[in-house]
Structure formats: C-alpha cells, structure tokens
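Late entry, evening session. Most of the bench is empty. Finally got around to the prediction I had been postponing all week. Sequence below, unchanged from the version circulated by S.P.
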Amino acid sequence: MEPLISVIVPAYNAEAFLDQCLESIVAQSYRHLEILVVDDGSTDRTGAISDRWAAQDPRIRVIHQPNGGHSAARNTALDAMTGQLVTMVDSDDIIHPEFVATLLDVMQHTGADIAVGDYTPFDHGTPALDSAHAADSITLFNQQEAILAVLYQQGLTHSPWGRLFKAKLFDRIRFPLDIIYEDLAIIYPLLQQCHLVASTACKLYGYRQHSSNSMRVFSPRRSVVLDVCEQLENHIQNNDRQYLKAARSRLLSAYFNILLLSQQDRSTDYSQLQDRCWTGIKRLRGQCLRDPMVRQKNKLGILVSYLGRWFLCRVAGRHYQPKP
C-alpha cells in the first residue's frame, strides 16, 4: 500500500507566497498526502488563503493558532500528523511536481530513514528544478558519516525542508521554541536514530531568498547559533567524543559567521559578542587547523586569524557572503 505522507507547512503572514507554495504541493504526482497548514497567528490573509485551499482539496487541513513562531507551528503539525512519512515545506518556497515521488523512491530503494534532495535558491518567478536521473545521483551516508557530513558542513545540511523523514524519528523530538537555528538544535538527535541517510543531487526544492529572510541579515537573535553549537560541543564531549572534532569545526564556523556578520552593522556596539567569538576562534583554531576534515574555507579563516582580529575582520569580512 502507498504510505500516507504528511506535508507540514508553517505559515505566518505568508499571503504573498502561500498560493504558489500550496499550488506546488497539491500538484504532486504522488497523491496520498495529508497537507497540514499551520496558520501561526497571521495578521494578513494567510488564514483565509489556507481555508480557501482546504475547501478545494480535502487533503488539506488548516490549523489556526496564536502566534508562537516557526518551531511552535511545526510542532503543532508534528503532534497532529498521521502519516508514516513526513516532509516540511516553508510557506514561501515551492517544490517540484516529483518532489515527494522522487524522495519516496529513493527512500524505498535504499532503506534510508531520511531522503534528501538538492535545492535551488530563487528570488521571483519559478526556479529551475529537476527530478531526472534521481537513481543515478544517490549518495548514501551511514549514521556516523551523516553526522560528520552535517557537522563538517560537507555533503549534508541541517535544514528540515527539502527532505523526507520517517515520521517515527519525531516520536520524542520537537523543535525548541523561540530561537532561530532550531533545526541545527535537533539534527544531532535525529541522526542518532538513523541507520542510513540517502541524498540525491536532483534539485527538487525551490528555496526563496528575499529581503525579509532572517538568515540573510544580521540581528542579535542570530547569536543563538553560538549557544546551540556550544551546547552541542559540551554534550558530545561528555557523551560521544568520536564526534568532538566535528562539533568543534561547526562551532568554529559559527564563531567566524557571527564575528564577520556583526561587523557589517556599524550602528550598534556588538563588542561583547565579538569578543566572545574571537575568544572562541583562538581556542579552537589550532586543533581545527590540524584536522584534515575541516573545510578549506575555515582553514583559510584560521590562517588569516593568526595575523590578528583586526586583519581578519578587515580582509575576510570584505569578501564574506552569508549563506542560508
């Protein structure tokens, strides 16, 4: 029998993009879906648009709730879903018509607990997506390889969108509330439950980048990534030291990221935050420089950092472009 697949769409003030998002979901070639749209206390027409789509397609269920943030909306849907498999689509993004079918095929043929597709960033219109030759572009990761790939930022990301999960992975896991980088906070316990992760190079997900995207601009809220990565380092140091070098590589990336991003905002004094990042860079740079798994971008940053903090911020910051 075809498994029921839950599609989770958290939506807050998404009236500009929600129609295009839901249109791409209901057009999936795989039809056995339950589509859970969580209207997270929107003040625009998001709720009305969601209800209109639900009236047109019985697979869509709308949940209206007071605003609680992205994590709360996802958690509400996780509590309500009934599918054996689950995928998540942000309300400003779109998916290829074969998104679900392709990832399901990858999962069934490999026995993976998570199937991951590639994505295409876009601003307007319709991005170039492609589902052809999925079987010829699969990379398999066992549990250890998947954890290392995420922490070393080479081969897998921590994003919850653009992938298909076995629903049981979320039996005891929910997104932490009131923070960004909530996906980074749960990726390690998710992967600890996985025997196999399968990734395809097919570009199945359109990731919209626009001026309101919180990951493209600096705000003090973004510094929570330091808390998340430091907590992960402490947990792994105390419980699973085989991943300690990888956790420190990810933490070093966070220190570089926040230090250089905060330098772009000259209107506010972030000296205390920048001191924290610089102290962390000095603590980790020696061991990360000797680690052959650390990506070259970080190693270049480490080498420049030995010339001093001012030089790092001046030279590296000039060429630094934040990534989603």
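Two things to note before I forget:
The chain has a mean pLDDT of 92.
Residues 244-263 form the longest helix (20 residues).
Will write this up properly tomorrow.
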